[in-house]
Specification:
This protein has a single domain, classed as Fido-like domain (Fic-like fold, Orthogonal Bundle). The chain is built from ten helices and two strands, in the order ααααββαααααα.
């Protein structure tokens, strides 16, 4: 693999991958219990969309107008999109955010043409972004096999998209919408029964720390064979799976349903 996105996922021969897939099973089981016990209703789905948008904005520290319609349009642009055309879908969604003032003064739907620092993360150079986005789309563009593997891939795709930071602004919100769409495509009920962004907001500090772990370069011969840290990616995935499962368990308890034992 080239382009610096390796490893694209925890390697099949690693102990961490087996443990992460077990965590995916816990999340899937809790999600299934919740969806089976609580009927999906359009009003609940609309309310969850509102809650998710507010939560994602709070993670970004956004103080401007909420622009629900723009964010709902961006959400729709990513839901059900062919993963092999994800780059175009993200550009379209970014254009909707720009057109409605959620992203200010930036070229609508265009990849960034300037180098940026995001907190302590120095994003890849602007010249690398087009090739990196093509590689990202290729790496995560096909189903990863089992449902647990698809869930794990969704988390990896989320970090790698944030790592690239393809746009000047709006990357966090778009990446969380993309993660929600990928988990939904993997069979989870995160748009009808619970919200990804709410889970990440509840665990915002650990979410940000985990992203930084996965940003780290490879640390010696015992840290995988890619450009980035294998251990950091695995720790990031474990943290997000814990946050997502915790959110589903909260929803189960609120609905009076006993979540499956861990």
């Amino acid at each position: 693999m080239i382009h610096g996105l390796t490893p694209p996922r925890p390697t099949a021969d690693s102990r961490q991958r087996a443990e992460l897939l077990q965590q995916c099973e816990v999340l899937i089981a809790a999600d299934s219990v919740l969806a089976s016990a609580v009927p999906a209703k359009p009003a609940r789905t609309r309310r969850l969309a509102t809650v998710a948008i507010l939560a994602s904005n709070r993670i970004e520290g956004w103080s401007g107008p909420v622009a629900f319609n723009a964010l709902l349009a961006a959400r729709k642009a990513l839901t059900g999109t062919d993963p092999l055309d994800r780059k175009a879908a993200l550009c379209h969604a970014h254009g909707r955010l720009t057109d409605h003032g959620v992203v200010h003064g930036k070229s609508a739907g265009e990849l960034r043409n300037q180098d940026v620092m995001v907190a302590r993360h120095k994003a890849p150079s602007a010249a690398q972004v087009p090739a990196l986005m093509d590689a990202w789309q290729h790496l995560y563009g096909r189903p990863a096999g089992s449902q647990t593997a698809r869930v794990l891939d969704a988390l990896c795709a989320h970090h790698r998209l944030l790592y690239i930071h393809p746009f000047r602004d709006g990357n966090g919100r778009l990446a969380r919408l993309d993660l929600e769409a990928r988990l939904q495509a993997a069979g989870l009920h995160c748009s009808t029964h619970w919200a990804v962004a709410t889970a990440l907001l509840r665990h915002e500090a650990s979410y940000r720390t985990a992203l930084a772990w996965a940003d780290a370069p490879r640390r010696g011969d015992l840290d995988g064979r890619g450009a980035l840290s294998h251990a950091g990616l695995a720790a990031y995935c474990a943290t997000l799976l814990t946050a997502l499962a915790s959110e589903v368990h909260i929803r189960c308890r609120r609905a009076g349903v006993a979540p499956p034992a861990v």
